[in-house]
């Protein structure tokens, strides 16, 4: 988050966002979860511009399976672990968008691995006892061809909140196809209106919460 100074007031000028796509497919294979995560990033940019507050959103989309991320619960598992590179980007971000497909009614295994790696942040604190994730906002994006979006969203949001991320109202967006059908989200020529609207609200509320946290951060441990 870049901060500009006007007199004695401080204002945000740039919000950084990181989208972690938890697709099981490596690039360049099409990914519906990555598409929805990208749409959240686009919505963040659009809503920031529409706010008229002079704030820009910068960000990137990263597909986790394209990196040699090891299983574990530390910040660096060694042996060429790809997580430290992703973690560095995460620490620079104000917003984390975690995008996952549904498999067997559950978050993808890649998403669960990301949550396990984030568990290490509970031990990474500043002098006031605040975790590295405190003050960061999370949004969840879920896609699948079966029911389970609410269950998957609940699991992921709870995990992110457990490790210190703040959750705005309506902090998720999702799409699920008709049961037992083979249509993927990225097969749609146009984004379904319901999903597009939900994505916009999630982005708008996330930006609002970031502003509040910037002005009034969390206290340190007593």
TrEMBL record:
MF-aspect GO terms: oxidoreductase activity
Pfam family, one: FMN_red
InterPro entries: Flavoprotein-like_sf, FMN_Rdtase-like_dom
Domain called NADPH-dependent FMN reductase-like: residue spans: 16-171
Name of the molecule in the record: Multimeric flavodoxin WrbA
Natural source organism: Nocardioides scoriae
